[in-house]
Protein 1
Amino acid sequence: MADELGLPLEYQKLPEYFDAHNTNDNTEVINRIIEKILREHKVEIVLDLTCGTGSQVFHLKKRGYKVIGADFSPALLDIARKKALKEKIDVRFIDGDMRTLKVGHFDAVITIFNAVGHLTKPDFEIAMKNIHVNLKDGGIYVFDIFNLEAMTDSVVNDFAMDVRSTVDDAQIHAVQTSSLDRETGRLTSYDHLTIQKGSEPPKEYKSNFSLQVYTAKELREMLARNGFETVYQYGFDGEKFVEDKTLSILTVARKQ
């Protein structure tokens, strides 16, 4: 999906460690905020086009929503399906790309946790057109992405990560640094993972990938070009959006 921008190691080679690095306290916060937005718009049927291992799908399903999850990563979907089986949750997961997958007509489509940042700008517009097709008239599209105007040098430096964690019998040491090209709006992260399983020699993995980030105005203009009206823009925590302060933009747009 993102050949030009690259992808994190957890997508490329190490899907079994995806949840360890992508599920945290913020996950439940954003899940509750998404649910609040969907409830306010009387949403019943949801398509998560970038569901990963299913965090939003399971949260919404357990609260009575009809949900389908889709992702371009078969490995992540395999984990999601195993979770559903283990928890005895009847939910459908589909292999597919947000730019092309057509599943039906939904009250809402969601793509959460900077998922759209893995697309180039032209590809995001293609995805918007496809999301438009998957929505009922008046349906809403909910997504988040980093806010370019708030990304000072200090903020980018704060993205640096040096984390140790344990998954089953594996000890993981993850180091990440980032840089931002303000002209292109691309945030590039450099990953170095060391993984030691039991008494085996440690293995090292290195990669880099970029996220396309946007200003709030840029997103509104793109949405308008592709058949959407921007309803409102929040911070990722659901608080009031401040143009040059709020780090992530949570956007709600309506199909026109």
Note: Helices lie at 9-12, 18-22, 25-40, 55-61, 74-87, 121-133, 153-158, 216-225.
Protein 2
Amino acid sequence: MDETHDPRLRSWVASANAEDTDFPIQNLPYGAFRRRGSGEPIRIGVAIGVQVLDLGLALERAQWASDVARLLASLAAGDLNGFMALGPQARRIVRVALSAALAEGSAQQAELAACLVPQADAEMVLPCRIGDYTDFYISVHHATTIGKQFRPDNPLLPNYRWVPIGYHGRASSIQVSGQAFRRPVGQTKAPQTSVPTLSPSRRLDYELEMGIVIGQANAQGEPVPIEHAEDHVFGLTLFNDWSARDIQGWEYQPLGPYLSKNFASTLSPWVVTMEALAPFRRPFSRPEGDPQPLPYLDSRQNREAGAVEVELEVWIQTEAMRRAGHAGDLLSSSSLADAYWTVAQLVAHHTVNGCNLNPGDLLGTGTLSGPKPEQAASLMELTSSGKQHVKLSNGERRGFLEDGDTIILRGYCQRSGQRRIGFGECRGTVMPAHVVQPA
């Protein structure tokens, strides 16, 4: 916590002072963009109110201390990965400098005002190069609810409370918020048939997750101790790991998800840094009676402030709603703070065998459901695997997603005495399948 978190701090960018903005001066998340339709090279910016500060222009046109100018160089070149690799101290130096430059009374206001681009005019792309992607399973509530559908008497597998479960996903199909994707095609097998068939998924689902963006790398063979794990994390984003439940049910044994997961994932365009999240930390503890983590997954720092309070929402806008000008319905709300494992524990576990993480690698949290039925973060949970349809405000019903449906994830942090900050939107739309025709 430092002067950049002061809730009284205001910006000369007027929209950043609105009570309901996701991007006050206390936030300053990073994203990659260019002016819509310009064909310009991708550049890095920070969101401030309804604007984006173009850091390439900011370095060129404004005066900065020499150490700040040196750190801004990779950002000015459009290389967020290079900046993330510099580690937490570099982030803090730039955060303090940007906060001062964007604050009311800044001597840099005149120069930086010409470096603002309205977010409405910005074409956002993935914020960084994602080399690898691992998806975890950190909500015990999601794991229990899903487990009950398959193992009513023993929903949690015996390793769940001891080890953060994860699998290696597909980085190439991660796309930025606002894009559409095709309904996946794959093998499925109905219980009453002896032969599987190839067809479009009929049980397409969303998964409300958060993405953990790795910053500083670790060398192969060098585990990251939990005490230093968050030094290797740049920040958090919203993440939707779309899932084809019928394809998943047939293919996942014995090696886990494959075509049911790798066809598309959607990432929000803004990465909220760990520094911006500092006011929203809270103690991490296990439910009474549960085993305590093994020593490599435990530290005083993680116990005292390992959890992060991020309130999460899932919205649906069907094609009929969109045609009628309807903004959509809220499906569920939950919180990252209810997760069974923390960000630091995921990094420590991922590297304990010597695995090397690189700048831009993405760790998904897994579906972040809460303890109450209405806090379920997937349709598979909300509808009991499609058996109990959700009724929408316009009379439509959903067991699983239909073509034309848009899912919107939103997230924000708020606490008494602190400025509310948000993550923007993570929005994706289902398109009809591209059906494979037999030769």
Note: The first helix runs from residue 55 to 61.
Protein 3
Amino acid sequence: MRTGVSLVALLLLATPAAAEWQVKPFAALTFGAGTTFVDFEKAAPRPHRMIGVTGVLIGEVFGLDVDLGHASGFFHRRGQTLLLDSGVTTLTGDLIVAMPHRMTEYTLRPYLVVGGGMMRVRIDGVIGAVRVATTRPAIDVGGGVTGFLTKRVGLSWEVRRFTSLGDNLLQGASFGGEQLSFWRADMAVAIRY
């Protein structure tokens, strides 16, 4: 933990005053999910819509972001009635490494992200026999590109892998330790300040 805080403090000190702020509201699809949570409707591996927002502080090469996303009905399938509601929420803080700004000023700027945070999983069964409301530590890794159409507004495309971390204890609503992982592909409007 101390190493992570020291790394973030060092990065903030090394980020020049010319660093820019970006806000990226996004719409996304999840895919390739795997889970140990009880998935009666076999819905988790299917694509799910996700919405969210990412806040970015980026300098010439390095930066930081905070990413928040939510997918409703993550364990639901249309036409199935075994669950009342379900959802997955992710909140992560990430280190960004991007191609130098001076090299990509008038084109797409590729970048990589890696970080960690938390993943909230919620499942409500019809008769209350299955009820999950757990928050697990999580990591994410991915990459994308951002390109600006004007000085202030652009578009961003990104793919990230989210994986929850947890113990290996047998839980009431999971097979083995509580674990969920999935890919997220998103498109965002990038607003630069």
Note: The first strand starts at residue 20 and ends at 35.
Protein 4
Amino acid sequence: MSMNETFFSADKRERSAVCALITGRSDEREVEISLDELERLLDTAGGDTLLRVTQSKDTPDPAAYFGTGKLEEMHDVCRDLGITLAVFDDELTPSQIRNIEDALDGVRVIDRTMLILDIFAAHAVSGAGKLQVELAQLRYSIPRLIGKGEELSRLGGGIGTRGPGESKLETDRRHVRRRINALREELDALERTRETQRKARERSGIKKVAIVGYTNAGKSTLLNRMTDAGILAEDKLFATLDPTTRKYRLPCGLDILLTDTVGFIRRLPHHLVEAFKSTLDEVRYSDVLIVLIDASDPEAGDQLEVTHKLLWDMGVSSKPTLYVYNKCDRPESAELQVAPRPDTVFISAATGEGIDDLVRALEDAATSGSSIAVFEFPLSETRLLDRLYKQAVVSDVSYGDEKCRVRAIVDTKTRGALKEYLVNGETK
């Protein structure tokens, strides 16, 4: 057992402990890295970590996760430090939570998934975001309602009890299932609206670029830098849950749509992945990905691996991708070793350093596969010229008595849609 003996000045913050097992499947370094992240999650939720508890054990104790001796030792230290919350890095069963709380006497117990759900509940802003969080909370909670009468009565405040799902938890399973079905229906209706919006974007032909990456990599700061989006950008995990899309005009004149997305994290609870499907679809339907990496984080390499795996699981790993290393203005970024490649850019979204390089790379990615074409449109069909201005880079327009001739850089899709207006022999 190790602990931080420094007492924080935190009248409204919860004194907490973080806990994990070192098993045969994980070495000590991996566990310490995961606990570092758990501490950051706890800080985001409003807790201070005064104690870190680990135990080497082949498998979790089925009754209480830790062994009896470790829990007795932890009980005494929690009492001395005034700790009221223990957060476990693995998912706990209802009986484990109950038995640990009995052993620690007065310390509430939650697990990693419950903590992340709590943060999402605190940060959800839009109606869709709140519905998604509530659905994830209820899906996670329903198997934990069995025989939990006493535990349910204790829900009344503190980390791990927030969100729209809180009042719903004090009901029977049948009511919870009804609520889950109602939430699904509401989210399905919202998804149909999103689908209509996506189809409109598809018809517009505007390229869609999704900014993805590990939580707190600086995605919101980057979108604010490029588009003055005005998104709240905090140095906290999961500061952004709801996707924000803004139009951006590249120097070549082509308009693109930039979307800020929810951050990734190790072991992102599958309840959240399912609930936030419509949000993550912004990534699936994008044309280009910007994978943002925090160059100042010593775990940048591992975080990039987590991002790669999640993109692979979503089936989007083959999309054109730019790897953008952010926060390069920080001294810690000097420790990062990355081989320069054409698809790699180094920036600071906070200061603007390297943004011009990013824009050039983005322009190359957005126009990749495009070629020069010449069209002739009837003067009565000016809407076609308007469409071309939105979907391509128009370099020259000349007007005749009955038609206008347009020279533009177009992608394959736009060329095919307007093929009847192509001028023979004047494309390449």
Note: Confidence is low (pLDDT under 50) at residues 1-11, 147-155.
